[in-house]
Design goal:
Chain A is α/β, with parallel strands linked by helices. In chain A, 39% of the residues lie in helices and 14% in strands. By secondary structure, chain B is α/β, with parallel strands linked by helices. Classes of the chains: A alpha/beta, B alpha/beta.
Chain lengths: 318, 435
């Protein structure tokens, strides 16, 4: 696989391949020296046009554990601020000899545009409201690991996963919905109509995805509760009346924790809005795996870098 | 020296059948004879071969962005005029969103004069409805009408304020002008990149809902009824807009409408590869909208095919989708897209497509004494000759426009312009501009 830009492009077989590789990388990460020479001499550039600490650090940690060289290009220090076009920026950095770009941008589609202008691999670290495939993969890895199942097509069959919150503006929701259903899970999207995509038929047509407006009605019947971040700027757009009302309808509080199945997992892609979608502290939620998600992110991103840059198994085992 | 357009099939506004084979003789700027094919005297004449071709009055584009003054990196009046001539247009209405905008006599006269200098097609500047297209203060309609401006529009922006639009219609009513609206309620399209629907939902791009157009079409139909002033709807793109205009016409209101070649041929799915070339305003919509626009053209609800030719230099289109400017070029492909989508499919005759490309828009633009005329002795020779059956593949590198942002790159289309005659001068001969 040359690029990782969307879950759709990766396909079910690709998801399974990355999950298998991720288990392997997780093993590397448990070693006393969690570093292998798989990508020695390869340069991975983080091209971040939007603020992100955790995703960038996760990718850079992953690249270094595979012995790649890493560079960071962030917009505040770059010549983009001097009016350099996206194309010129990419071509300039590319000319220095880059194996992979890890791209984050506030606008959907930028990883596709960039891949036209470079021979390097492009890994999407989040584009607009569109896709954040490594987040979805690390979430799949987390669910598979926590449930103790082997990565395979259909390995999440029988699971019901609720994705709650601002789905309209969420690249995480789009990627996760596609990845979870690709592995056989059923997904229920829980949100007020103002925070749904204008037309959800691309997901609901297949029958694996349903839409609900009442969190309490689905809470007792889900195996995974996936809470999305509610961005404060949505208030200005009159998408919900106020955060208090949002929290009352869609926030996870003690009462709702009590309604969850005993073995239900509670996930959040971070950063959390405490007091909004997460009214309780995750430490009070038995099935919360929020920190585990972050830990798993490194192994999954190692797997992705390894896969797109064509490292060999032998180097991982060395 | 006389020119003879030899052996073509003449189709014009007076034609009721498939047209007749004829030789068209031109002397100076006028047609001096139309005779049976093969019977025009030879000798000291220039012959333009038209065998297998249709000979018609030249096309009139109600909607061309020429970018001069202000955006000459994307197009100039000369390069845009050349693209127009190659597309068979003998007259184009230049949209006013130049920099400075066409809201004063001096800018309007500059545009007209640059068109005259290029000499490739009649360039008719439109005027702004409001100063600087800012939607606040009316532009001096009478001052601009006095120098020949007939179409007024803030194209690129809809006039948001209903009071201002009412005043514009009332004030303009006695001046013999037509107001043309870009229908878009801006509050509903903030940040929009593409049609609001299943595709934008999947791609995570902000949507431009159909209702943002339809609400303004509806408002302006009501204002048209109230004021009795003429109203033209630019680039209709939705099924419901077509229905609204159809009902207004049935009522006898003085409304006209246009549709673009891209809105009758391309859907929002074109954005799936995230190429900003397919970003346009209003956006590409759905197969149902395309079908409705085609029906509207076929039944006359939509009077004209207009290009909304909107050149943008490569470096402008090679930006992210949120900042890349909307628009696509269309002058050189308009006829071919119309023939491919409307005639090859059996929806319309060649004659009715020509009505939408020539005499209908000529009437709307107030050019009916000069353009879209019958191909007859005594008339000004503003003519197009095209081969309706030739198949060709569009190549963005092979356009006369200064910008290559065609959405039809790589597409095979039917029909291509062979000759264009402007006021008796052959400005395009065998598919090549003569200047």
């Amino acid at each position: 696989m040359k690029h990782l830009r969307s879950i759709d492009e990766l396909g079910t077989d690709g998801i399974v391949r990355i999950l298998e590789l991720s288990a392997h990388m997780a093993e590397v990460n448990r070693r006393s020296v969690p570093k292998v020479p798989a990508l020695v001499g390869r340069t991975v550039v983080s091209l971040f046009f939007e603020d992100s600490t955790r995703t960038r650090i996760s990718f850079e940690t992953a690249a270094r554990r595979l012995s790649a060289d890493t560079m960071t290009f962030s917009v505040s220090t770059s010549s983009v601020n001097k009016g350099e076009s996206l194309r010129d920026t990419v071509e300039t950095v590319s000319a220095m000899g880059v194996a992979a770009f890890v791209v984050r941008h506030k606008t959907s589609g930028v990883p596709w545009q960039i891949s036209q202008w470079t021979d390097a691999s492009v890994i999407n670290a989040g584009d607009g409201w569109h896709q954040h495939p490594t987040q979805a993969l690390l979430d799949c890895h987390t669910i598979v690991t926590e449930r103790g199942v082997k990565p395979a097509p259909g390995c999440l069959a029988g699971l019901r996963i609720a994705i709650v919150g601002d789905v309209k503006h969420s690249r995480v929701a789009r990627s996760c919905t596609e990845a979870f259903t690709a592995l056989g899970a059923r997904v229920v999207i829980v949100a007020p109509a103002t925070l749904l995509p204008p037309d959800a038929s691309p997901w609901t047509n297949g029958g694996e995805v349903e839409i609900a407006g009442d969190l309490d009605a689905v809470l007792g019947d889900v195996d995974v509760l996936y809470m999305l971040r509610m961005q404060r700027e949505r208030m200005a757009e009159a998408l919900v009346p106020n955060l208090g009302e949002y929290s009352a309808r869609f926030g996870l509080d003690r009462r709702r924790v009590g309604s969850l199945k005993k073995d239900a997992l509670v996930m959040h892609p971070g950063p959390m809005n405490r007091g909004v979608e997460m009214v309780v502290d995750p430490s009070e939620v038995p099935g919360a795996v929020v920190t585990t998600q972050v830990t798993n992110g490194v192994a999954v991103r190692m797997a992705v870098l390894f896969d797109v840059l064509g490292g060999s198994e032998a180097e991982v085992n060395r | 020296m006389r020119t003879v357009i030899s052996g073509g099939r003449v189709v014009d506004a007076t034609t009721t059948d498939d047209g007749r084979l004829a030789d068209v003789v031109i002397d100076g700027d006028r047609i001096v004879d139309v005779v049976a094919a093969g019977s025009a005297s030879s000798g000291d004449v220039r012959v333009l071969d038209a065998r297998g071709c249709v000979v018609s009055s030249g096309f009139v584009d109600l909607h061309t962005h020429l970018r001069e003054p202000g955006r000459e990196e994307s197009e100039t009046i000369e390069t845009g005029s050349r693209a127009a001539a190659l597309g068979g247009f003998t007259a184009i209405v230049a949209m006013p969103n130049t920099d400075p905008a066409q809201d004063s006599r001096i800018v309007v006269e500059f545009v007209r004069e640059q068109g005259r200098r290029a000499g490739l097609c009649d360039v008719h500047p439109s005027g702004c409805i409001t100063i600087g297209r800012a939607g606040e203060v009316l532009a001096p309609f009478a001052e601009l009408a006095a120098v020949g401006v007939r179409i007024f529009t803030d194209d690129g922006n809809g006039v948001q304020d209903p009071l201002l639009m009412r005043r514009a219609l009332e004030y303009g009513r006695d001046l013999g002008i037509t107001l043309a609206q870009h229908c878009e309620v801006a509050r509903l399209t903030h940040g929009a990149v593409m049609h609001e629907g299943a595709c934008c939902s999947r791609l995570g791009l902000p949507g431009w809902p159909a209702i943002a157009e339809e609400l303004m079409v509806h408002r302006d139909i009501e204002l048209c009824r109230l004021t009795g002033a003429r109203m033209h709807f630019l680039h209709l793109s939705t099924e419901r807009s077509v229905e609204l205009v159809r009902a207004a016409k049935a009522e006898g209101l003085p409304v006209t409408a246009e549709a673009t070649p891209h809105h009758i041929s391309l859907t929002d799915e074109m954005l799936s590869g995230f190429d900003p070339v397919f970003k346009v305003n209003p956006p590409l919509r759905t197969p149902a909208d395309i079908a409705a626009l085609k029906r509207g053209l076929a039944d006359g609800t939509i009077d004209a095919i207009a290009t909304d030719h909107a050149p943008h230099a490569d470096h402008l289109k090679e930006q992210t989708l949120d900042v890349a400017p909307p628009g696509m070029i269309g002058l050189e492909t308009a006829l071919s897209v119309a023939l491919t989508e409307l005639v090859d499919t059996g929806l319309m005759s060649v004659r009715s497509v020509l009505a939408a490309l020539s005499w209908n828009p000529a009437r709307i633009a107030g050019l009916e004494t000069v353009h879209g005329r019958p191909v007859a002795s005594g008339e000004l020779a503003n003519l197009v000759v095209f081969d309706p059956s030739v198949r060709w593949t569009v190549d963005r590198r092979d356009v006369a426009s200064k910008s290559g942002n065609t959405p039809f790159h790589g597409r095979e289309l039917s029909g291509r312009v062979r000759h264009t005659i402007l006021n008796g001068v052959a400005v395009v001969v065998d598919g090549t501009a003569t200047k």
